[in-house]
Each structure stands twice: as C-alpha cells, then as structure tokens.
Prior knowledge:
about 25% strand; single chain; globular
Amino acid sequence: MADSDTPHTPPLLLPDAIHRAVKPGTALLRLETTRSRQGVLDGAWWPRTRNIESELPALISVLTEHLGPITRVGVDASAWDRLPTRLVIDDRVVHLDSDPVGDDTVLITRGDNDHFALLVVPPDTSADSAREAMARAVRADNVTQAAQILVATAPERADGGATDPAA
C-alpha cells in the first residue's frame, strides 16, 4: 500500500507550536510544547469577551488545524453570556456542553474520548498577568490547577493581597 493510500489520522499528540494568535488583536492560544501531555493542562486560551459564539470559532478553527476535527467543547455556562448547545464552525457541528469544569477551564474533545484541557484566562485580565498565567499553564511539568494559576498570577492589590480573578 502506497503512503498516499494510508488514511490521514491526526497524531494523539500536541503540536510543537508555543503560541499562536487566533485572530490578531482578539484571542491568544498557547499549547504545551512537549508531546508528553503529562501536565495538568494542555494549553491556555485568552478570549477577549464573554461571548462564546464570537470567541469559540477562531479557537476551534486553529485547534482543528493542529489536532484534527473537534467534536465537543465543555465550558462552565456561568462564565459566558449565553451558551448554545452547538455551533457550526468551518462547516462542522461542534457540540457545547455545560460542564462543571469551572470558568477557568475549557475541555476540548477530539474524536470519541481524546480530551485537551485549556486554562481560560478571563477577558479582562491584564496583558502581563495573562502572559504569565499562560506560560505557567503550558509548562510540561505543571501540576497546578487552572484556578490556582489565575490566583497566583493576579496582580497584587495595594493591601498586599492578590485580586480575585473571578471578580
């Protein structure tokens, strides 16, 4: 059988890209740079708004380029303005599930049961805090949960405490 006869199956690994602008000036995506997928998170996403219908298509399009077709997305409905049950993105139906994953995580499903967990940086986060949170999330040795990363990278208040990223 020739190589051209072999069906193309996306690898079960993350791409070697360190980050990618989804749309200039809108969202930023970073993925873990190792193929091991042993960290708690596989990447980080910084949407610019809480409108999932405008933010998600660019994310899914770019992930599809690297990972193959995305079938489901799990998000916390309370983190978004409105949550439809599905969206048509690049002529494919992507189902949206309201999962109790927390508003700091999005679960991307490829195929039947291949999940990728991304830290979701809140849209109103400062650029410096977002960059730091995203860098921590994509470390191959990261064992810190998304919510803890956001707390640790939040700017400090005048009284010495960190601001609440969910506020």
